[in-house]
């Protein structure tokens, strides 16, 4: 008899009679004796095996171990056992630190929040098979860990008692989820991926049996093959889940054009629907959702929706951000009150109607996001009557007038962003912020003049996390009160007139993640970045001195470092891409351009494996580009222009397959450019100008099919211009788009221009100042989207192709200093966009074409100088030969001369007839002879006129 039974016998019978619950418990213990270690041995061994299969960098599983102190596995971290049977019923290993980091980017306007590297606290490895021996499990949460793209185990089908399963953002993969088909007890299922398309499903039929499901989240699972109207129709399978309350199908590649409204109408209990970022849904707004009276939260961000938003008074949350073709008619939508609405986001939609209409019919609104909607007029005073407002984001509109003074009455207001409007007036920061409980204030890029009182530090209740005062006419020294904003996470004071040095007290701001003080007049040594900084922009100031090794080490932990346009000296510190054990470089953007840095590019660049943007241009760097740079496999923009670098870097740069921009201009590089073709198929901008590259332009240059800018000028290239150049796909059509915010030098219209932003209409090909020979290929006329063509200072011969006239987008054409001969194509006169033309110093002949636009291109004749055989307009040479033989005549001039000729012939006929008539009539020989002499003289002058012209 065990100890429990002996204890039961010594308890008095009367005590048990008066305490029946204790009596029943003790009877149960006799039937189910307590396990020796407080939990079942086989389950305990399973947990230890699970731990051994995982890496645990944050020691979350430190309590999972042998020893008398840890015998009861029910007490281990994340483990819960049932009362009575002591079976493990709950395992919660959620990585909460990763989750906090993830949530900082989750609701931003960018889809690319997963590009940020999360803290390395995730459990890593693969699930042990013994995991699935814990068959009494009811609750399992493994979210925000790293299971290294392993397949979701089929053994999940053994866990039939599971009611809650969360595998979200844990780096699982798979192509089928049938293992969940018989988990009929599930009420909560979250399989959302941390990255797009980690799981691709062709069928969701397994869902139809999960009839008790209340929460289903499949975000970032690819359902593109399960959206067709067949047995794989995902919406039909979801329609069986009559108890569903929360449905998340965001980022699932669901396509349209018909929104699956009929199936969703069956979900009568649905309260939250999220189908955001299904970019090809391309459907009209599902107006029938208004009939789902239980629906309270609707998220349809970036779905390419069109049509209009109906009246949906049952909603508490509506988010239709970034549907530019969706019509939000404020007059119609808010004709009646929305009595429950607390969250409204209509940013980047087609908004019409009076803003006042919205304001007057949302009495409980707390969160208002209406940025980028082209809303006009003043901010209405009635905004202050929505007393529960917490967030107001009205940036990037056309608001005018002043900030309503009554805004200080909004005592719950937490975040205010009215930047990028046309709001005027003087704003005293103390009078505004000391009356509000703001944590975020952005007033930048208006017409405001903001004054800052240095005594703001006397107001300890200021809890700013975000302060944005870009272009607010701030003057004077760096405001030291900022050092007392200990919660500050983002400080943006760029484009002002701040001077002096940055106070060292800013280092105390331990939470400061984003600092932008660019385009001011700040000076002094480069301040050390804060420990948690992720954006550090001090560009275009007057900071001087060297970048110390300590500063470089700190910079290596920052995602975006922009220090261009200062007076920094010394070398690029090797610590900026540190190889120290345990120190990982997070830099994605590094811009040190336009300083006075010298020395070599450090070979430690290999450790900056996350680099996407590297700009070291306009310095005094020397030596070779280190081959170690090829380790930066994610590099998209590389600019090393305007230095004294040498060597042949193209053979390893060609391995950077993600490159979009490559600018090596104005250096001493040499070698063949053939390494580039066929390998950099994402390249849009290529500038190798002013170097020593040699050999010929390869025919497979056409493989760079996304190219918009090709600048090979000022090198030693030889051979022919390949005719394949006419097949550069992105230049064969006229396109409108944005190429990027980057610095690029390019000769256009005869002037060296510095671009800060590039658009597709800035496209250009510059092959000037080389040793190219042969003819200009006729195929070049296929480049109808090209804006600039410069082939000057070469040895090109033959005719100018007539196909050049087909290049309707051409604004600048320079063929000067070659050996071109023949006629100037008359079609140049019909090129309306052509604003610059230079054909000088060639061997061209014939008549210069004329036309209203053509005549304005070179009024001084400089475009045609040193072409000794050109004649006509702007030259001293008269064109000889008759009209029919002069094929160089322009159409306009030929037309004018033709009518002159017809006029003279008609005039001569009339004069001749009258002279003959009157001569015969009067019969006077003197008049008769004089008449014919005059006719002869007129005929001679007419012939001379046409020979001259």
- The quaternary state of the protein chains shown equals single chain
Rg calc: 38 Å
Biggest sheet descriptor:
30 strands, mixed
Rough outline: globular
Low-confidence region ranges = 1-18, 20-34, 104-117, 882-902, 915-949
SS strand fraction: 15-25%
Count every helix, treating DSSP H or I runs of 4 or more residues as helices. Answer: 14
Rounded mean pLDDT score: 84
CA-to-CA gap between the ends?
A: 131 Å
Please give the share of residues in helix: 10-25%
Describe the structure in your own words:
It is built from 14 helices and 61 strands. The chain has 949 residues and is an alpha/beta fold. Strand 2 (79-81) and strand 3 form a beta hairpin. Helix 13 packs antiparallel against helix 14. Residues 1-18, 20-34, 104-117, 882-902 and 915-949 have low confidence and may be disordered.
Task: Summarize it.
With 949 residues, the protein is α/β, with parallel strands linked by helices.
Which properties best describe this structure?
949 residues, alpha/beta, 30-stranded mixed beta sheet, 6-stranded parallel beta sheet, 61 strands, disordered N terminus
Strand and helix layout:
Elements: H1 3-10, H2 13-18, H3 20-31, H4 41-52, E1 54-55, E2 79-81, E3 88-92, H5 96-106, E4 124-125, E5 139-141, E6 150-151, E7 164-166, E8 172-173, E9 188-190, E10 199-200, E11 215-217, E12 221-222, H6 234-238, E13 246-248, H7 261-264, E14 272-274, E15 297-299, E16 307-308, E17 317-319, E18 323-329, H8 330-333, E19 343-345, E20 349-352, H9 355-359, E21 367-369, E22 376-378, E23 391-393, E24 398-400, E25 415-417, E26 424-428, H10 429-433, E27 440-442, E28 447-451, E29 466-468, E30 475-477, E31 490-492, E32 497-500, E33 514-516, E34 521-525, E35 535-537, E36 542-546, H11 549-555, E37 560-562, E38 567-569, E39 589-591, E40 598-599, E41 613-615, E42 620-624, E43 637-639, E44 644-647, H12 650-653, E45 661-663, E46 668-672, E47 685-687, E48 692-694, E49 709-711, E50 718-719, E51 738-748, E52 751-759, E53 764-766, E54 771-775, E55 788-790, E56 795-798, E57 812-814, E58 819-822, E59 836-838, E60 843-847, E61 869-871, H13 891-922, H14 925-948
Parallel strand pairs: 3-5, 5-7, 6-8, 7-9, 9-11, 10-12, 11-13, 13-14, 14-15, 15-17, 16-18, 17-19, 18-20, 19-21, 21-23, 22-24, 23-25, 25-27, 26-28, 27-29, 29-31, 30-32, 31-33, 32-34, 33-35, 34-36, 35-37, 36-38, 37-39, 39-41, 40-42, 41-43, 42-44, 43-45, 44-46, 45-47, 46-48, 47-49, 49-53, 50-54, ...
Antiparallel strand pairs: 1-4, 2-3, 51-52
């Amino acid at each position: 008899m065990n100890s429990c039974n002996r204890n039961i016998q010594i308890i008095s019978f009367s005590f048990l009679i008066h305490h029946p619950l204790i009596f029943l418990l003790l009877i149960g213990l006799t039937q189910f004796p307590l396990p020796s270690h407080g939990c079942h041995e086989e389950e305990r061994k399973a947990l230890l095996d699970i731990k051994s299969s995982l890496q645990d960098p944050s020691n979350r599983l430190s309590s999972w171990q042998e020893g008398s102190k840890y015998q009861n596995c029910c007490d281990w971290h994340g483990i819960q056992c049932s009362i009575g049977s002591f079976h493990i019923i709950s395992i919660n290993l959620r990585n909460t630190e990763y989750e906090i980091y993830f949530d900082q980017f989750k609701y931003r306007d960018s889809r690319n929040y997963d590009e940020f590297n999360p803290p390395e606290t995730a459990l890593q490895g693969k699930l042990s098979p013994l995991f699935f021996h814990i068959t009494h499990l009811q609750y399992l949460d493994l979210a925000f860990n790293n299971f290294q793209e392993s397949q979701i185990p089929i053994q999940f089908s053994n866990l039939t008692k599971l009611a809650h399963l969360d595998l979200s953002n844990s780096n699982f993969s798979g192509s089928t989820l049938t293992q969940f088909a018989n988990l009929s007890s599930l009420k909560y299922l979250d399989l959302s991926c941390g990255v797009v398309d980690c799981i691709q499903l062709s069928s969701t039929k397994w869902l139809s049996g999960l009839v008790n499901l209340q929460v289903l989240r499949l975000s970032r699972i690819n359902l593109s093959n399960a959206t067709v109207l067949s047995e794989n129709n995902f919406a039909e399978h979801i329609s069986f889940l009559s108890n569903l309350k929360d449905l998340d199908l965001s980022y699932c590649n669901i396509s349209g054009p018909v929104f699956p409204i009929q199936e969703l109408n069956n979900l009568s209990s649905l309260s939250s629907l999220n189908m955001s970022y299904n970019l090809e849904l391309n459907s009209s707004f599902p107006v029938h959702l208004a009939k789902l009276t239980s629906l309270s939260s609707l998220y349809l961000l970036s779905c390419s929706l069109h049509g209009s938003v109906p009246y949906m008074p049952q909603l508490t949350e509506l988010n239709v951000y970034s549907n530019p073709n969706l019509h939000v008619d404020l007059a119609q939508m808010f004709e009646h009150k929305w009595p429950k609405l607390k969250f409204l986001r209509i940013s980047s939609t087609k908004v019409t109607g009076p803003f006042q209409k919205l304001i007057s019919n949302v009495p409980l609104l707390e969160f208002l996001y209406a940025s980028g909607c082209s809303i006009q007029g003043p901010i209405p005073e009635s905004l202050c009557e929505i007393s529960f407002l917490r967030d107001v984001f009205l940036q990037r509109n056309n608001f005018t007038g002043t900030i309503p003074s009554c805004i200080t009455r909004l005592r719950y207001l937490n975040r205010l962003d009215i930047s990028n409007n046309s709001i005027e007036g003087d704003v005293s920061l103390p009078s505004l912020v000391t009356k509000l409980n703001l944590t975020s204030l952005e007033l930048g890029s208006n017409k405001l003049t903001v004054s800052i009182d240095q005594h703001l530090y006397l107001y300890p209740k200021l809890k700013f996390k975000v302060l944005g005062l870009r272009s607010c006419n701030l003057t004077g020294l760096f405001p030291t009160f900022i050092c007392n904003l200990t919660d500050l996470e983002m400080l943006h004071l760029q484009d002002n007139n701040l001077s002096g040095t940055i106070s060292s007290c800013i280092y105390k701001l331990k939470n400061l993640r984003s600092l932008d003080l660019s385009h001011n007049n700040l000076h002094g040594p480069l301040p050390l970045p804060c420990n948690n900084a992720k954006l550090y922009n001090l560009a275009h100031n007057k900071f001087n001195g060297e970048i110390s090794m300590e500063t470089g080490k700190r910079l290596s932990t920052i995602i975006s470092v922009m220090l261009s346009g200062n007076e920094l000296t010394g070398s690029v510190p090797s610590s900026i891409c540190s190889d120290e054990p345990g120190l990982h470089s997070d830099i994605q953007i590094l811009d040190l351009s336009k300083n006075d840095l010298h020395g070599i590019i450090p070979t430690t660049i290999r450790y900056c494996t996350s680099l996407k943007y590297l700009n070291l241009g306009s310095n005094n760097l020397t030596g070779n580009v280190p081959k170690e740079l090829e380790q930066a496999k994610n590099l998209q923009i590389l600019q090393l222009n305007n230095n004294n670098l040498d060597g042949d870097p193209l053979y390893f740069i060609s391995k950077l397959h993600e490159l979009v921009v490559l600018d090596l201009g104005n250096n001493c590089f040499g070698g063949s450019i053939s390494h580039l073709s066929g390998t950099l198929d994402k390249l849009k901008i290529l500038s190798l100008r002013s170097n020593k590259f040699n050999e010929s332009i390869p025919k497979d240059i056409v493989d760079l099919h996304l190219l918009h800018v090709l600048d090979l000028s000022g090198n030693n290239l030889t051979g022919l211009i390949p005719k394949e150049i006419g097949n550069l796909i992105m230049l064969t059509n006229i396109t409108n788009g944005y190429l990027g915010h980057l610095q690029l030098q390019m000769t256009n219209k005869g002037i060296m221009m510095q671009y800060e932003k590039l658009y597709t209409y800035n496209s250009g090909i510059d092959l000037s100042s080389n040793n190219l020979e042969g003819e200009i290929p006729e195929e070049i006329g296929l480049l109808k989207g090209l804006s600039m063509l410069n082939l000057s200072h070469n040895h090109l011969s033959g005719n100018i192709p007539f196909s050049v006239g087909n290049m309707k987008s051409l604004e600048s054409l320079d063929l000067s200093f070659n050996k071109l001969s023949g006629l100037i194509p008359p079609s140049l006169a019909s090129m309306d966009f052509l604003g610059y033309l230079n054909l000088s110093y060639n061997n061209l002949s014939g008549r210069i074409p004329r036309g209203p636009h053509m005549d304005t291109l070179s009024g001084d004749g400089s475009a045609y100088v040193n072409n000794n055989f050109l004649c006509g307009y702007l030259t001293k040479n008269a064109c000889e030969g008759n009209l029919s033989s002069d094929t160089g005549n322009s159409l306009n001039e030929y037309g004018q001369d033709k009518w002159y000729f017809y006029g003279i012939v008609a005039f001569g006929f009339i004069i001749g007839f009258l002279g003959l008539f009157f001569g015969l009539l009067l019969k006077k020989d003197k008049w008769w002879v004089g008449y014919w002499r005059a006719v002869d003289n007129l005929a001679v002058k007419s012939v001379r006129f046409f020979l001259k012209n």
